[in-house]
Design goal:
single chain; 310 residues; mainly beta; 5-stranded mixed β-sheet; 4-stranded antiparallel β-sheet
């Protein structure tokens, strides 16, 4: 099978993030926001005005992901997977209002210190799925990574455990399958998803990157309107397109190695990246590391949903 290729040689905007992540598109304002987790920064770009409109906001703590809230102006408040819980983050005051904390009881203080949020997404019922794992800036990884589901009433359910680095989350068009990237095992998992209850079951390996012959580890992913997953490859200098059958049919080649996350804005795919850990041996990668990239891939994204809070 031939693989369609797109090649990006220059950044859309040179943000030089330590760990660019959590890229999110707001169609109502044609606005993009993304995070530098390790610098506790959130960036916003008005795509009508372009890179010169870039704004920087201090998040005060590592934030892994943000999503819009139904009925709330996201130019003022967003829902955030923050250091140790889910917060309503005020973009004007830079203050966090906790909806729920991840940890309580015995061991909560220790977990709060060494763990943080990673990726997250909202399902069709407005439930916010968000992950936590050992912060690599603080200590070595363990299998204590976890996928939570926060329901509209603010209660937190533990949905999947014993994973080192949980990552991208999407649901198929039929709303009966959830995909979850397992970074350290180099695979995308699929689960039977029950939209009425929010339950998941019947875990399977949907895509095994170790068998692809391509470099890197799967990081964040997004889904297009045709049901393909666009999977960022950390250490792989690319985003790959994976069909609903689990086949790689396309790749976006990028000028830096550590590709972290992507999102659609119309038919443009925006891609975040992270610092180059070995600049001496990878000077070209280091030159472009941490920047935001853009490429038109000729297809739009699947509908994204806002979180509901009761």
């Amino acid at each position: 099978m031939s693989i369609q290729q797109w090649k990006v040689t220059e950044p859309y905007v040179a943000t030089k993030c330590k760990l660019g992540e959590g890229v999110y598109y707001v169609p109502e304002r044609n606005e993009l926001r993304f995070l530098d987790i390790n610098s506790s920064k959130l960036y916003i770009i008005d795509l009508n005005k372009g890179p010169d409109s870039l704004k920087e906001i201090d998040t005060g703590m590592p934030v892994g992901v943000t999503v819009d809230i139904e009925g709330v102006d996201s130019s003022e408040i967003v829902l955030a997977g923050a250091k140790d819980g889910v917060t309503k983050f005020n973009l004007k005051t830079q203050k966090h209002d906790y909806v729920v904390k991840y940890w309580s009881g015995a061991g909560a203080e220790e977990k709060t210190k060494r763990m943080r949020s990673n990726d997250g997404a909202v399902d069709t019922a407005g439930r916010f799925w968000v992950e936590a794992f050992d912060d690599p800036e603080i200590g070595d990884p363990s299998d204590e990574g976890v996928l939570f589901r926060m329901d509209p009433d603010g209660t937190l359910q533990t949905m999947y455990e014993k994973i080192v680095i949980p990552n991208g989350i999407t649901w198929n068009e039929q709303d009966n399958t959830m995909h979850l990237t397992d970074t350290t095992e180099k695979r995308i998992l699929s689960f039977a998803y029950h939209s009425k209850t929010g339950d998941i079951s019947d875990k399977k390996i949907f895509y095994d990157h170790s068998k692809s012959g391509l470099p890197g580890n799967p990081d964040g992913h997004t889904q297009d309107s045709e049901g393909n997953l666009w999977q960022a490859l950390y250490g792989g200098s690319r985003v790959i397109r994976v069909t609903p059958e689990g086949k790689v049919t396309g790749e976006v080649l990028l000028p830096t190695r550590n590709i972290t996350c992507c999102v659609f804005a119309g038919t443009d795919l925006f891609v975040t990246s992270a610092v180059e850990e070995d600049p001496e041996n990878n000077p070209e990668s280091a030159k472009y590391a941490g920047n935001l990239f853009k490429v038109n891939v000729g297809v739009g994204g699947a509908p994204r949903h806002k979180a509901r809070l009761s």
